[in-house]
Amino acid sequence: MNLKDKIEILGKMKSDLAGKDFLLTWEKSEKDLRIIIEVATILKEMRAQNISPRVFDSGLAISNFRDNSTRTRFSFASASNLLGLAVQDLDEEKSQIAHGETIRETANMISFMSDFIGIRDDIFLGEGNEYMREVGAALDEGFLKGVLPVRPGIVNLQCDMDHPTQSMADLMHLKEIFGSLENLRGRKIVMSWAYSPSYGKPLSVPQGIIALMSRFGMNIELAYPEGYELIPEIVEIANKNALQSGGSFSISHSMSDAMKDADIVYPKSWAPYNIMQQRTQLLITGDKTGLKELEKVCLANNAKFMDWEYNEAKMKVTRNQNALYMHCLPADISGVSCKQGEVSANAFEHYRIKTYQEAGFKPYVIAAMMFTNRFGNPAEALKSILDRNRKRVGL
Amino acid sequence: MNLKDKIEILGKMKSDLAGKDFLLTWEKSEKDLRIIIEVATILKEMRAQNISPRVFDSGLAISNFRDNSTRTRFSFASASNLLGLAVQDLDEEKSQIAHGETIRETANMISFMSDFIGIRDDIFLGEGNEYMREVGAALDEGFLKGVLPVRPGIVNLQCDMDHPTQSMADLMHLKEIFGSLENLRGRKIVMSWAYSPSYGKPLSVPQGIIALMSRFGMNIELAYPEGYELIPEIVEIANKNALQSGGSFSISHSMSDAMKDADIVYPKSWAPYNIMQQRTQLLITGDKTGLKELEKVCLANNAKFMDWEYNEAKMKVTRNQNALYMHCLPADISGVSCKQGEVSANAFEHYRIKTYQEAGFKPYVIAAMMFTNRFGNPAEALKSILDRNRKRVGL
Amino acid sequence: MNLKDKIEILGKMKSDLAGKDFLLTWEKSEKDLRIIIEVATILKEMRAQNISPRVFDSGLAISNFRDNSTRTRFSFASASNLLGLAVQDLDEEKSQIAHGETIRETANMISFMSDFIGIRDDIFLGEGNEYMREVGAALDEGFLKGVLPVRPGIVNLQCDMDHPTQSMADLMHLKEIFGSLENLRGRKIVMSWAYSPSYGKPLSVPQGIIALMSRFGMNIELAYPEGYELIPEIVEIANKNALQSGGSFSISHSMSDAMKDADIVYPKSWAPYNIMQQRTQLLITGDKTGLKELEKVCLANNAKFMDWEYNEAKMKVTRNQNALYMHCLPADISGVSCKQGEVSANAFEHYRIKTYQEAGFKPYVIAAMMFTNRFGNPAEALKSILDRNRKRVGL
Q1: Are A71 and A359 in contact, with CB atoms under 8 Å apart?
Q2: Which among C59, C102, C106 has CB closest to A393?
Q3: What is the rounded distance in angstroms from the CA atom of residue A355 to the CA atom of residue A349?
Q4: Which residue in B34, B6, B73 sits closest to B385, CA to CA?
Q5: Cα–Cα distance, A369 to A43 (Å, whole number)
Q6: Which residue in A340, A366, B200, C66 has its CB near the most CB atoms, within 10 A?
Q7: Distance CA A394, CA A6 (A)
Q8: What is the Cα–Cα distance from B371 to B10, expressed in whole angstroms?
Q9: pLDDT at B70 over 90
Q10: What is the rounded CA–CA span in Å between residue A188 and residue B355?
Q11: What is the per-residue pLDDT for B99?
Q12: How many angstroms separate the CA atoms of B362 and B374, rounded?
């Protein structure tokens, strides 16, 4: 289908995304999620065809990373740049931002000429998403009271609850692999815990995956060793979503069993929910001895489940011995990035390039979130871009 | 008044700002200061109306912060971006720049494609402004001798003597609140020291305020506990300015008394001039014990003046019990950002949003400084922007 | 000669640079080197005439510095900005990139919307250039397998073997000084070791100079105290180049003798090749005691050659007592940046401004490398820019 036709089909869906932050996929209607996927697909194809979708002549996109990151940082920078925005880092070591009054003030101070703020805050359980909402409320006030000429949109670049730019990129990848969102209906996807020699990995990816994929009629199996629970409220959301969308949702405790007849597998380590709660408390109180102690206990516990490695033996029991392997990267690859990890080198190599492609959707998902925040009728705006026909590179 | 009319009025003033650095407000004529305020006002309104005033297709704006900063950093980035320049940080930890030969060389090395260098250097008394002039002299030489295709303009983003982007933003704020610069004539503004639990706060804000506001026929009262003097030469400049502009200038030593019938109050902590001199010496010699000692003495001294807090009792004696409260932010707010500080939470809350608005003028002031540095006839250039009618966002 | 004529002459040379990385000058044909010099000259003149050569509406240029740098960092940022690309730093402290699997993955993760990656990696002998090739191979794979929409070009911003953006800028400088590349034929250039109170300075500049200047019929004299050898393979390349181009190449061990009748002198310190090999091993094994020991031995050895300072006495024996002095900067200037160094203050001052001009070619050389990577027919693209006639600054 050519771009014009895609845009025309998009035009039949009415977007409710304009002026709204993107914080959690489960706050968005299925239609709005589809719109983002479509806009992202169109932007990706435009760039591939050397059509520049630049819509900002100037403007800033603030990058607020309260945690390290390479790929999400670059994805945000790429998306911003594609649309014409310059990235400005809010480096907290340099600028000391915090909660309360400080948030309210800083949010306004950085936003006089900002169009978007991308935030990553996934260290403290119960904090990251709340922080984003505090920033949002401060921006609302600032805009309402004439401090800000524009209400900057917030894009959640990972929090304690969800990682929507990741899960949406993953969904886009699935759409591409299986041909359409409709084709995902009835597919079995296994979101499985996997062994890792590190500890404290965030819950946002598995939570984001089960909460989003359950919207499209898939059969979700969440597998983990007993004790490695996710946030119960989000598991409940996934469960409800699955029921509503005509799919299913189940929890199991054997990786090998879970993989049976899977169409898609997503083996990835995470820390148990209650451990993350304890860790959050220790981090808040600055209890370094406690943190070391907890790490020791956790790693010892992890070590009981070293057989939770995705490998060719487990691949064999999947659909056609060939389930699509997914990962948000970087994966802990046995014998490559660690001695023993989430996935065997062989199993990973089968899908290495596909995981790169999976990651490649993220910049466009972010760009689509920005685009639909600004343009109430994205199809119309995209059509204007097509008509303008400005080259991204060249004369 | 619409943009076209504002530009026409601006066109009647002949600018002498082209090609000159902006280092101290007292080096500029009143007319040139008015031009900057007008250009900033027009740029702000253009952006609000989604008109892009971008005038650079490419070019760098170098951001050289020798001290931490969030709001000025973002203001500089915003202004640069609005006009089409990309910000490039000169990070001294990474690049080791210093005085003498090194300044001369580095100034040229970073400027082959630079249009502006924004410098913040307010730590050492007697150093910051001098450093900027050293950079300026190096750029003059480089341009004269064909090293640089363009002489980059320097914008003082705070030095030991002045903080012109702050004071000019404050002036713009006053103009907006009181309707015109003419309406400031005869108003009483109190620049008052206030208690803070920290020490070593720069003198540039109070100095900048008294030296600038005294140009416009206002009655300046500078209030501080005895011993908390500013740089005498700058106080003298303020005094002379006041006489020339038909206003007045006085110094007093009671915050409560000073506030009587004030139209505008600016309560803000600073370190005494002679302490800053001692501190500079200790910093230069790297005398850590001496610095600790000095801090102790200062904090003890500060603590004698904890009643120098601006609060509702003090508000009550101001004009209509309602003087405009100003601050460069962040303020030390009692019970919020510290136990006891410059301003009570209640008093601050009355004007919190207004202080945000005050800060919101800074990016436009910086943009206007850049704009008038490049365009000898700013009105003509602004008219061309209006005629071009390019959208900042949209198609 | 005007721009149009220059472009026409350029149009007669067929470029083979499109789509290829620029890693070592000796991998490029003489014709391709000439094309880069011509394109850089034209871009420089365009900017001087306020013609914007921007050819990217959006796109990223990744800056990957594995070593500190101010001037090359700014040169890369300037070149990227001139063509319309936004710089995104890959900060390894933040992002932990390494060899093997990690390179392969990271190279793709940062490149979804990248057009160029500039890499500086000159610390480990035998590593820097290899690292760039590893990145290149990863990008080839990513592009081939549909991960990347564009194969980003790599620009070597200094490695263990060559520093091509420096040597090409130096060549451009020589062309400007002597009027043409043809006029360099038969000139004597002395690449000489010089004393420095520091140790471990990279070999890439002297290697880059002898390997490049030997392509243009010059008489190269490489002078150093015995024991301060460069990488033998690269010396051999310079030797062969000189023979082929009708110049000459010789090695000598007295700075004073070498300077006799020199047209051009390039006195610069470097560490001996075998010391760099030992140092690399110690760095790899993390042997801090060994490194300290080695430094001590080296500095003691350097100190035997403190008379290897370029000064007015040595100037006197050069052609017309006035050889062109070159340096990549910063130079170790006796009595200025150190007690005793590579060059006396007097000798340096004669050519200080010229060394700034020399450095000023680097941004354009980098821009030309990028430009010719993207446009198979650079003359045609430059002609379109001329016809488009877009201003860099102004309306």
Answers
A1: yes
A2: C59
A3: 10
A4: B6
A5: 11
A6: A366
A7: 25
A8: 14
A9: no
A10: 56
A11: 52
A12: 19
Distance between CA atoms of residues C65 and C69, nearest Å: 8
Reported as a single tens digit per residue, the pLDDT across A126-165 is 889 999 999 999 999 999 999 999 999 999 999 999 999 9
For CA atoms C23, C25, C26, C30, the dihedral sign is: positive
Query: B115 in contact with C at a CB cutoff of 8 Å?
Result: yes
> Residue C112 has what DSSP assignment?
T
Asked if A371 and A15 touch (Cβ cutoff 8 Å), the reply is no
Cα distance between residue B258 and residue B253, in whole Å: 8
In this predicted model, what pLDDT tens digit does every residue of B88-116 receive, in sequence order? 999 765 444 455 668 899 999 999 999 99
Whether A48 contacts chain C with CB within 8 A: yes
pTM reported for the whole predicted model:
0.97
pLDDT tens-digit series, residues A220-276: 999 999 999 999 999 999 999 999 999 999 999 999 999 999 999 999 999 999 888
- pLDDT digits over A204-231, tens only? 999 999 999 999 999 999 999 999 999 9
Complex ipTM value: 0.95
Chain B from 132 to 151: CB within 8 A of any C CB: 141-142, 145-149
CB < 8 Å to B336, chain A: 100-101
The type of residue at A191 is: M
> What strand order describes the sheet that includes B219-223?
B248-252, B219-223, B188-192, B264-267, B324-325
Q: How far is CA A210 from the centre of its chain?
A: 12
Q: pLDDT digit string (tens) for B32-46? A: 999 999 999 999 999
Whole-number average pLDDT of chain B: 95
In sequence order, which residues have a C-beta less than 8 Å from that of residue C278 and are 6 or more positions away? C294
- What is the structure's pLDDT at B97? 46
Q: How many residues does chain B have?
A: 395
What span, in angstroms and rounded, lies between the C-alpha atoms of C65 and B128? 30
Helix/strand/coil for A370: helix
Is the preceding peptide bond at B330 cis, omega within 30 degrees of 0? yes
- A88 DSSP assignment: E
Q: Quick check: C94 contacting A, CB < 8 Å?
A: yes
Give C98's pLDDT tier (boundaries 50, 70, 90).
low
